[in-house]
Amino acid sequence: MEYKVRCGQKRYRLSIDRKDDFSEETAIDVGKNNYRVKIHEKTQGGDIRLISVNNKLLWVKVSRRSDGLPSKVMLNGTAYPVDIEKVESTRFKPETPRKQVEGKVNAILPGQITRIYVNAGERVRSGQPLFVLEAMKMENEITAPRDGIVHALNVRPEQLVSKGELLLEIKDN
């Protein structure tokens, strides 16, 4: 799981190896730095009290927002105000029909088509993965904007595409 974290004027990207309760040592990447974190003690209410970071013990008190994410973290008596935002999936969906011509799927970013899941003439459902567009070293799974039949498939694997280029067209059943 990935998060964007702001602590004071500094911004970090935090990546957690796996969804975990941290009862075992867990790898966390903060920017280019790697840490091993483990929870050693919790309160009766489930709040974290004692953790280790790279085998160094720290007393912790966390103040939370209404969504459950921390707003302030106190480590060994020093308070750090934090703003944490969960980074959503890289799965891109086509723009809403108001903004995009119905049934037409255009490239959302310049990049390269790495995988194609459908063929011309095939029936697709809204939200069904159509292909993968790799852009800026990230794989973006492009999904069908609506139900229908793939009328025109204008891409092939390994093809480079430009932003806005018509990639696929879906027509009524």
Automatic annotation (TrEMBL):
Residues 84-171 form the Lipoyl-binding domain. This is Biotin/lipoyl-binding protein. Keywords: Biotin. It comes from the Bacteria. The keyword Repeat does not apply. Pfam families: Biotin_lipoyl.
